User: Fold Serine hydrolase domain-containing protein from Streptomyces microflavus.
Amino acid sequence: MTSPSEELLPGTRRSLLHRVATAQREGRAPSLAAAVRREGRIVWSGGRTGLEGPAPDADTQYRIGSITKTFTAVLVLRLRDEGLIDLDDQLEKHISGTGAGSATVFQLLGHSSGLGAEAPAPWWERTPGSLRPELADVLGEQPQMHPAGRRFHYSNPGYTLLGSLIEAVRGVSWEEALRREILEPLGMHRTTAGPVAPYVEGWAVHPWADVVVSEPAEDLGLMAPAGQLWSTAADLLRFAGFLAEGDDRVLSAASVREMRTPASPAAEGGGNSYGLGLQVVKTDSRVLFGHAGSLPGFVAGLWFSEDDDVAAVALANATSGLPAGTVAAELLSIVADAEPRIPEPWRPLPEADEELLALTGIWHWGTHTFTLRLTGGRGLELRPLGGTGRGASFVPRPDGTWTGLHDYYTGETLRVVRRDDGSVDHLDLGSFTFTREPYEAGADVPGGLDPAGWRGLGG
Assistant:
């Protein structure tokens, strides 16, 4: 039960229900379940069905297809954080004889390994995994279709290899590692490798008639890390909360932030990108992180907005027709647009650091003017005064320098350069010199300053 301050407004709830009802009808899905999470709690859920019996709810299982890949990526990042692998490791360091051993773990996570999109025929999603008992059966005779690292090319076999990597390093099955390291710590008890009641059956809907045929629900075998899982709207929203904030029992906030960072060139046909097991979608108003999924009989979508602190899930049991990923994104936008996040109150810093305070204010890189602000935790924020130019936030290091967090200055070092008397001469940011005045006389500016100084150019 949510408190009044956490409940959605009646108009927002009506809009969510209308979108779900419209999606189920226009998408001709036998059923559709959806839910929205805001500020750490599920604030709305709903379901529609055209079948006999009750409508599905947030505890009803659907198959989630490629959203499984995000779970596999979390397991790989855990291995990295424990020092058992490095993301730059070539696969052959841990698994030999695949024919794809030169691909790195990082490239496999971000779909830039150059591997093919699918396993050889017959279509792996509608046939039992027992038909592909070995990795060679998944990869085929020519696994590499593109040079590694050159382009984004979505690869289901790539995530099969990552699942085998997890098993090789952990010494347990992918499913056991998943249960023990993610599902149990996060309380995701309704996420399983096979269906557990209550669940829905998968259907294909005839494109030109309102009739259906049952779809097979195969065990994918070695391909399981690419698309095996069944889950619920409620469980997936728990997972979204973890992906937004991290959980030290599973993966730190820094590591889930790394998952959200684009890892490969933009996907074909647009500016959207892919991180480490997460899709990154830029709309006109926000950036969404998450994943879409499908297997015969099912479509699924999970998206969250870090800035809005809203996540949404949509699940349907139809092979095609209903774009669950789009529906989930629209549900998120309905809440975020109708009820914008209330910002936290502004609060003064708990104490003033006179030395850092003296660094704030106007600085110049050549003739470009910037402001430097002090933020919480001894952080700094550098912004161009005119609104155009390069800026970034910086976090402190123990050695008295700062590390850039954004865009051009990501990972770059900001340091204070002092004169012999201890006064500040300039700021050095990746070899760029920032001074209090444009090309300040007496400061250690690369190239020096014309002794004639600033002057006019008379006719």
